[in-house]
Amino acid sequence: MRVNVPMREVLKTLHAIPLGALPAELKKIIRRGWYLTEDGALVLESLEPRSLLSRLRVSRRYRRGEGLPSCWNGIAEYEYHTNDVRIPDGGLPLDREQFIPAMAARSFGFVEAAFRSAARFTESDTLTAVISIGVGDEYLTHGAVVKFFTQRAGCPDWYDDLDRFKLEAIAVLMRVDI
Questions:
Q1: Mean per-residue pLDDT, 65-84
Q2: Which three-class secondary structure string do you get for the chain?
Q3: Among 7, 68, 96, 149, which one is least packed by beta carbons within 10 Å?
């Protein structure tokens, strides 16, 4: 796992939460699970239902009748933009000192459950999650987002230097790390 300085500070106060403590929205995503598209993209069913994918050609390449190339600008980028989960903040304290660690615990708990759910796919060996939690003045507005993608021709280069993110606590995890 790689983290930036703000996430290191958050992790000092982090407490693990059981899967049962995740909000219903996140439990539903985990319950519906993952599937592989025809092109081999690993996708969360709740975010991109197979039925929708078969009816709509959502990417430019799909609209042109082409498959997704097996590289960052293809499958992994499609996964990154599709597997984009906003972590619900309902029921969390609004005080900054309590909200941010609680949001981190919820985010890490969700990632761990999603990684376990994806383990049956060999493609998940390179499954990567990026957790982003707002820590600036607008922390309540920013909240937390988790994105999943598989490593294909590297990950986006904007995660090479995590310490350039000052207003976000960032963690980059791979399924094999859990």
A1: 70
A2: CEECHHHHHHHCCCCCCCHHHCCHHHHHHHHHCEEECCCCCEEECCCCCHHHHHHCCCCHHHHCCCCCCCCHHHHHHHHHHHCEEEECCCCCCCCHHHHHHHHHHHHHHHHHHHHHHHCCCHHHHHEEEEEEEECCCCHHHHCEEEEEEECCCCCCHHHCCHHHCCCEEEEEEEHHHC
A3: 96
